[in-house]
User: Fold PDZ domain-containing protein from Octactis speculum.
Amino acid sequence: TTTTTTTPAPVTSAVPVTSAPATTKNAEGARRIKNVTSSSSTTEKKNNKSSSTSSTSSPPSASPAAAAEEVSSSGVRELSRTQRLDVRITKGKVGLGIDIREAKGAVTVVRFKDLPAGVRNPAKAAVPPIQISDVLVAVNGTPSTSFKNCVTNIRSAPEGTVVLTVERRIVS
Assistant:
């Protein structure tokens, strides 16, 4: 069996970097696609079966994006990427302006809070703006390992600038 490994290059800017999927063929000629995520965990897809392995995490900053070619049920090939971004958001009297939920082991942004007229939502004003379905990875550099942990980290952050590390899935 032939295996190709893609190692992400170090990132020195806040601009997300993308990488191409690593594709190999095994002895039977079946196509394998390795999806290298920003946290260096890999998933191999082979004939609709998958297995995964993990290694050490990368630091919470803008990191290389993972890319994998996927074939949808309609037979259309899509390129799926995951970006890891550090979002600067201002925490004030109205909090961060988001509702979060734990789903499939990840803490995800599910909606923007309704705020009083004339009050701008901090999540929409963040740089870059928060998006629905962003996965919260860390709060001020502290990993969010569970919903409870994430809420505790957000509540304990003082008013002012908070850095949320998020992962964002992009399908093109």
Summary: The chain has a mean pLDDT of 71.
